[in-house]
Amino acid sequence: FPADLVMPFGPPPQAVLEQRWLWHMLVVLLGVTFFLRVLGVDVAGALLTGLMLGFAMMMTRDGMQEMGKYALVYAVLCGLCFFFDAVPLVTELGGRVSRTTEPMGSHIDEHGTRQAVYTLTTKTIPFFDKKQGLVYNVQSAAMLLSPLCMALGLYLSLAAHNATQRLAGPLFDNEPDDLGFSFSSSAASGELLSRRVHGRIDQPRGGADATRETFERFTGQGQSSAID
User: Which tens digit of pLDDT belongs to each residue from 42-53?
Assistant: First the structure.
């Protein structure tokens, strides 16, 4: 197996343990974001934030022993969530746009077709506005806090993955297997076996002729003995 697929068992590297307080901060921020999503009646956002919160709590439990196994997956998820949170935040940071449609009436034209008239009102509201009530401002706070959480999670998980890979490389090269052979010697044995199967073993000079030269033909005369 390649070295990048093997994770060392046990506690993570010291560089990851030194960032434990940042992981705890991430868990707290994700918890606050989850609460704001629920309070702002954002069901989809609350489910996604709850998933990332549970994932972070699972990675930081038991001395962060599961960190190396899930760090790369968590980095990918944080990157995707950051992208989908940052796009609407950038477009609405200068003001959230609300559109309302109101019917104005209907009439029947000369061809007997009923036509309805609607009025579309577009209104730009500041990102935070006391007049809009609690739900509106809570949603704005969640939109601002969620990308920050995902950016922090992306940084921490990538740093943990890189530190774990740097630790896994030397361990993989030097650690012997159950039979007492190192991985490098096992790889050489595998290459030799592959060459033997495909008939590519280098034979000594002379090949079969050299084998025949070592065989001496018997040139004597046979004798028989009688037993009295």
Answer: 999 999 999 999
Residue found by looking up tokens 């490389």 in the block: 169
Q: Indicate the pTM of the whole model.
A: 0.64
- Three-state DSSP string of the chain: CCHHHCCCCCCCCHHHHCCHHHHHHHHHHHHHHHHHHHHCCCHHHHHHHHHHHHHHHHHHCHHHCCHHHHHHHHHHHHHHHHHHHHHHHHHHCCCEEEEEEEEEEEEECCCCCEEEEEEEEEEEECCCCHHHCHHHHHHHHHHHHHHHHHHHHHHHHHHHHHHHHHHHHHHHHHCECCCCCEHHHHHHHHHHHHHHHCCCCCCCCCHHHHHHHCCCCCCCCCCCCCCC
